[in-house]
Design goal:
alpha/beta; disordered N terminus; 10-stranded mixed β-sheet
Length: 468
């Protein structure tokens, strides 16, 4: 499966890394042998293997979702569910990362971002993490930032992980939840002690390289009382003209009066089915913010969820999705209000071109106990041509008379008057369109750190084939 072919690139993030060598035998499809191989390779405790086998049984019993984009072309038995590259491990020095893998992350800009903007960084390649670092000053404050598979082998962390694992997203949630728990590998384990505030972003970057591969990282974030943090995930994969699958999971638990921001820039290739589940449980007075950009994949189904469990908690969901020819981006947000005086704000922006399909799919559920709750939903779609599609599928339940919900949805084309005005000022048509698109998405872009907003601008400009 490995050779010494040099890395090739088409000038985007979908270049192939054909010189990377792997130390595990590739097994196609999902069965008990694969599950045991993953557990044994990661040196897991017995309870995790038992959980995996239970999840495999649930996966085999459940059917594919009967709503949303069609998944009929996704052959789950053609996927390679585990691929461990040579040199994988919790390397603390960038110099220890294998050269071929290091070159990939160098080109993606990970070391440079770490030097300029990050408090820490993790890098995962296919099924295994290859690098993790954490600033000494944060280690001194007892902050934990580790590869999830590695953390599970640490006796000091095992009980914490066992306490929270699957507690926000149950194994039985849906078919891909069960699949994830059966084959997950890598990801991030982050624990912020009470009162610790981290101002610099922390990041993990996930690179999928194997042809017909799957990536199933598991991210678990726990913030104690009065803690504060910002976590960023970046993702990419090469184009092989054969389907690949990403089904990573994010579980977030934050205690009273803590603040958490989760940002992601997902730029999978056109081969990839991106079927993610992300969920946060919100304690009293806590603030949760989701900021996401979704580009590139063949099909995306992603709806970050906040469960406002206790009084006076708040969640913001901000998302951008871009769909081009052959792409179906089904994205949105879910917020469940349980506590009193809870607040949520959902803002979704989508851009559709060349027959691309964008769908905002959202759920707001205000329980009877959630008195005096407030919700605002705003989803806007921008259509670049006549063939593109923008949908809005809101699902709103209000179970008490003291709460307030505002919902607004719109879809439209670039205003020809705006385009004419800019061109009359000497700006050519492509640059004028780019300016209008940038203005359309600016409310969300400004919430990203500068380095990542710049990356999103580059990616969107490349997708639109307009000047940057």
């Amino acid at each position: 499966m490995s050779n010494n072919t040099t890395v090739t690139t088409s000038g985007t993030w979908d270049f192939k890394d054909e010189g990377v060598k792997y130390i595990t035998e590739f097994i196609q499809g999902i069965n008990e042998e694969v599950v045991r191989q993953i557990s044994e390779s990661n040196k897991e405790p017995e309870w995790m293997l038992e959980l995996r086998l239970k999840a495999l049984k649930v996966y085999q019993e459940k059917s594919l979702p009967k709503w949303g984009p069609s998944l009929e072309k996704l052959d789950l038995e053609s996927i390679y569910y585990f691929a461990k590259p040579e040199g994988a491990g919790n390397n603390k020095s960038w110099d220890d990362v294998p050269e071929d893998i290091k070159n990939t992350f160098d080109r993606l800009g990970i070391p440079e971002a770490e030097k300029k903007a990050l408090a820490w960084v993790g890098a995962q390649y296919d099924s295994e993490t290859v690098y993790h670092s954490l600033k000494q000053e944060l280690q001194d404050k007892w902050v934990i930032f580790d590869d999830m598979s590695h953390a599970l082998t640490n006796p000091e962390y095992q009980e914490i992980i066992k306490k929270y694992f699957t507690k926000s997203i149950p194994i039985t949630d849906h078919k891909f939840a069960a699949l994830h728990y059966a084959v997950w590998s890598g990801g991030t384990f982050m624990y912020i002690p009470a009162g610790v505030e981290i101002d610099e972003p922390l990041q993990s970057y996930f690179r999928m390289n194997v042809k017909s591969g799957g990536q199933f990282e598991h991210t678990m974030i726990i913030l104690e009382e009065w803690a504060k943090a910002h976590y960023i995930e970046g993702c990419s994969a090469p184009k092989y003209d054969e389907n690949s699958l990403h089904a990573g999971w994010v579980e977030i638990f934050v205690w009273k009066n803590a603040t958490m921001r989760y940002s992601s820039v997902e730029n999978w290739s056109m081969d990839t089915y991106n079927l993610n589940t992300k969920r946060a449980i919100v304690e009293e007075g806590w603030y949760m913010e989701w900021v996401g950009g979704n580009l590139g994949s063949n099909t995306t189904m992603l709806y970050p969820c906040s469960i406002l469990k206790w009084d006076n908690s708040k969640a913001d969901h901000l998302g951008i999705a871009l769909a081009s020819d052959g792409q179906n981006q089904d994205t949105g947000a879910k917020v469940v209000h349980i506590g009193k005086n809870t607040t949520s704000n959902i803002m979704s922006k989508s851009i559709s071109k060349w027959s691309g399909i964008n769908t905002y799919r959202g759920l707001v559920d205000i329980k009877k106990s959630a008195l005096n709750s407030t919700v605002k939903v705003d989803c806007d779609g921008l259509l670049i041509d006549k063939e593109s599609i923008s949908n809005a599928v809101p699902d709103i339940h209000v179970r008490n008379a003291e709460s307030v919900v505002a919902h607004e949805a719109s879809a439209g084309k670039i205003n020809p008057n705006d385009l004419f005005y800019l061109q009359s000022r000497g700006i050519d048509e492509d640059e004028a369109k780019a300016m209008i698109v940038n203005g359309f998405i600016s409310p969300i872009m400004k919430e990203l750190p500068l380095e990542y907003a710049s990356e999103m601008n580059v990616l969107i400009a490349m997708e639109m084939e307009w000047g940057i």
